[in-house]
Amino acid sequence: xxxxxxVHGLEKRFGAVVAADALSLDIAAGQKVSLIGANGAGKxxxxxxxxxxxxxxxxxxxxxxxxxxxRSPRNxxxxxxxxxxxxxxLFVDLTxxxxxxxxxxxxxxxxxxxxxxxxxxxxKALELLExxxxxxxxxxxxxxxxxxxxxxxxxxxxxxxxxxxxxLDEPTSGVSADExxxxxxxxxxxxxxxxxxxxxVEHDMEIVSRYADRVVAFYQGRxxxxxxxxxxxxxxEVRRYVTGGVQ
Amino acid sequence: MKQGLxxxxxxxxxxxxxxxxxxLPTWTLSLATVAASNALIALGIVILARTGNVSFGQGLFxxxxxxxxxxxxxxxxxxxxxxQMLIGALCGGLLGLAxxxxxxxxxxxFFGMLTLAxxxxxxxxxxxxxxxxxxxxxxxxxxxxxxxxxxxPREADFMLxxxxxxxxxxxxxxxxxxxxxxxxLASLAVRENNLRVEYLGLSSNRIITINLVIAAVFAGAxxxxxxxxxxxxxxxxxxxxxxxxxxxxxxxxxYQSVAAVFVASLALELVRSFSNLYLPNTWQLVLGVFLLxxxxxxxxxxxxxxxxxxxxxxxxxxxxxxIQKEAAQ
Lengths: 247, 329
Hints:
The complex is a heterodimer of chains A (247) and B (329). Chain A has 247 residues and is an alpha/beta fold.
C-alpha cells in the first residue's frame, strides 16, 4: 500500500547549519505520528519542506505517490496537506467565524464569489467550531480570544479541507498544564470524523506517549529513532539527546 | 457578521440623490459632480486597500480612462455620457488587467511606489506626445445623453451630476456587495496574513489582481466623468499630485465603509472650495490641518464614526513577519 507521505533523502542546509540530513520517512494512512527533538533539531524545517514553504536542497517528497517537493504551499494545500502553526496564524482583525469562512472559501473547488455573501459559510463554520467545543466563539474577534482557543481555531482552519495529511506544529504549546490533555482530546475528537493522517510536533512527552502511535525523534537534522512511543522514549540516545531522561 | 441595507434600498437612495440635484443650487452641482467623480476613484483605492496595498498612482488608470474616451469621442463622434463612462471604465480595466498580475507580486510600499512610477511613466509619455497635445492636452465636445443635447448650462450640469451620482452610486452598491462577499472577506485576510491565505489554498496574488482591476475600472470611469466635466484633458490626469488627492480621500474615508468614501470626497471638496474662497493663499494649509485632524481623532477614517462593529486592533502587519520567523526556525 502506498504511504500517504513518503520522504526520501531529504536534505536542507542553512549555511553551515544542517537542518535536514538525508531524511527518509514513510507515513501510512491513519497514523498519528509525533515528531520530537530539541530546538533546532529540524522538526519545523521538515514540516516547512513538506508543506512547500521551504524547497529541499535534494531528495524527494511524495503525497500518495505524487512528487510535491517543488510545489508552493497553495498547491500543497490543494493536494491535501494542511498545517497549523506553533504561533497560531489567524486573521486577528476578523471573528472566529469569519476566519473559518475564509478557510471554507479556499476549500471550495470554484473561484471566490464576488457577490455571494461570506455569511453563507456561517453554518459550516459553526459546525466546525462546535467540533472543537467553540460554538459560542463564532462572533468573537480573534483579538479577544485566549491563546489556547486560538490554537484550536488554527487547527480547525487546517481541518476545513478534510486533508489527507494534517501537520500540527506544537498543538499544546502555550496551553496551561491543566488544559493540555483537554486541548489534545478536543483535537483528536475533531480530527476523528475525517480520519486524517496526523503528524504533530511536540515537546511534551506525556502528550506524545498518550496520543501518538508512532514517534520519530530528530537530532541535528537526522532521524535518531523511529518506532512506537514506548520503545522510542526508552531509547538511550533519545533519552540522552532529546528527552533528557523524561518519559 | 453584520447585515447592511438591501441593494434595492440602496438603489432607491441613489435615485433620490440624483433627483436631489433638481433642488440644489447651481454652484453646488459642479462641486457635487467632482465630489462624486473623485469618490468613485477613491472607492477603488479603498477596495484595493482592503488587501493591504495602497496605490499611489491611480492617476495611471484615471488618465487611461480620460484619454481613451477623449480619443474615441474625437475620432468617432461618440458624445453620449453613459457610453463615454463605459468606454473609460473599459480602458482603465484593460490597463489594470495588463499590469495587475505583474504588480500584484509586490506588496506594501513596493506596490505603492510601483504604481506611482508607472503613472509617472505615462505622464512623461503624454507630455512628450505632441499628437495628444503634449503638456497642453486637447479639448472634447459637450456630452449628450441618450440623444439629448443640453444647451442650457443648468440642465447640462444637472445631467452630468446625475450621471456621476448614478455611476458612483451603482459602483458603491457593487462595492458594498463585494465587501460582504467571499472575495471581500478573503481580501481582508490577505491584508492581515497573505501567507496563511496561501496555506488555505487561495491565491493572494489573484485576489490582489482582481481588486486592482476593479479599482482600475472605477478609476477609468472616474477619468471619463472628469473629462466630461472639464471638456479638456491633459497629462495632469496622470500626475502624482492628482493620484495623491485620491489617496487623500481614501485616507479620510477609511476602509470600513463605502458611504464614508462619498462623505469624505464631499467633505474634501467643501473644505477646498470654502478655504479657497476665504483663504485663497493658504487653502492647502487648511486642507492639511483638516487631514491631520481626521488622522488624529479618527485614525480609522470618517467611516469609524458609524462603524463601531468591534474593537479591532490595527492592521496585523506583524503576522506575516511572525509566520516567516516561525518558518525559518
